[in-house]
Amino acid sequence: MAKRTFKGTKIACYIGYFVQAIINNLAPLLFVIFSDKYKIDLATIGSLIMLNFATQMAIDILSVKIIDKIGFKKITVCSHFLAFLGLVMLGILPEITSHHFLAIAVSIMVSAVGSGMIEVTISPIVESLPSDKKAADMSLLHSFYCWGQMLVVALSTVFIKLAGGDNWNILPIIWSVIPLINMFNFMSVPFMPPMEDDEIIPVKKLLKSKAFIVAMIIMFCAGASEIAMSQWSSFFAEEGLHVSKLMGDLLGPCLFAVLMGAGRLFYGLYGDKIDLVKIMSALSVLCIACYLTASLSNSSTVSLLACAVTGLSISLFWPGTFSLTAKRFPNGSGGLFGILALLGDIGCGTGPWLISFISSAYKSANPALSEGAALKSGLAYGCIFPIILIIGLIVLKKDTDKAETR
To answer: 0.70 exceeded by the pTM?
Structure first.
């Protein structure tokens, strides 16, 4: 049997991000089915998003201390097993119990543990591999999350259209095959040797750095900017814009993923020629415009396109923040990525929750308002996050420039 190389490791990492896309994007596609079949209201459905990312946050916190001690390989293999198990549970438990919400919630939590482990291991694994284009490699890696999101949305939507909503539970079981296969893949690929303990920047030292605190804030806003739109776009298209589920999913979350992947792929191929801070700042302005357009436009077509273009606008936020921070703190190792992933996941949970909270407030103040119309009003507040992100980028850039001239 031929010896596996680091190319195989990188491919396994790409598939790992595909797995994370399955976990984060499959359940939101089923929100309308959950609402109709199990009579779960908007606020409760919103709590499923928060539960997913809250679980991932807990894993991020644990990983800060243990990831370098246990080792990336063991954690990565375990993460894929839990992703597989959670997806199988999601397909089985809600159909065999009367406690539908609890069954969905527990299944999401199990797969979220796997997703959280993937988040804190895959990026530092790729960052550790030999390369002279680390920022571009990071962007290319994260593009596979987008291709995963695109395929999950497109194929799942077509499946539901053909098989019917009553057969939704087959979907999670079908998708569970991918993490199962990649689990065995990670068992055989090589990993870079870990850094010595005295080479790694301690977490306490990182948390005392102004630059790292700013990076944490940027990461929070990156997660919130991305997920606030992507998690609600399917529901928004159906209930707020009154388009069919097939067209809403394909032109909303699916096109969102395509444009997000295109932005990351473009930077992955040509990133060594582009200033990362400048392009992230420009994309932040575009993100602000997208949120406001989606919320304020009277045209369903324009609003839906604004949802989709948000995918391009946030494409470099997450991988770009990883790259900028790793460049500023090259010996941060697993702790650095774990903390950033934690803040990103807090943002991922907070962004959609804030939108649902504000939307519910609009609904309470105006009972005649439909849930779709209330959600459209709430989306405008999503522009808060890219505004803060721009300010953070300016501060981090100045600090990095000072550090490089010392």
So the answer is: yes
